[in-house]
Amino acid sequence: MFQFATAAAAPGGAGGLFQMIWPLALMFVIFYFLLIRPNQKKQKQRQSMLQALKKGDKVITIGGLHGTIMEITDDVVVLRVNDVTKLTFDRSAISNAIAKDTASEEAVSKS
Q1: 91: phi then psi, degrees, rounded to nearest 5
Q2: Rounded distance between C-alpha atoms, residue 49 and residue 107, angstroms
Q3: Considering the entire predicted model, what is its pTM?
Q4: First and final CA of the chain: distance in angstroms?
Q5: Strand, helix or coil at 11?
Q6: Which residue of 39, 54, 59, 71 is most buried, as measured by CB atoms within 10 A?
Q7: What per-residue confidence (pLDDT) applies to 57?
Q8: 51 by DSSP, 3-state: which?
Q9: How confident is the model over 50-106, as pLDDT tens digits?
């Protein structure tokens, strides 16, 4: 049994090493294009969205709270939830910004 294993590994040792490594390399490439690259794109898009926030934008937090930005600093956002309530959040707690066109269409459709 051991003689068979050593005899099979001896001829073409370098070719056997390549045959063992290329499936791992192929799996890494597949993981890169299916998992790592899309996640990096999503992170860049989110970071640019957070940097583009300004006073008056309508946003949704990661907890699902809808509000309008009243004050904004480098890392803190103050949201107006209704006429009287203002809540303070970290900038990273903003999930997404609602487009102004969408927000104005919602206001028109509610009226």
Answers
A1: -60, -30
A2: 23
A3: 0.65
A4: 83
A5: coil
A6: 59
A7: 93
A8: helix
A9: 999 999 999 999 999 999 999 999 999 999 999 999 999 999 999 999 976 555 555
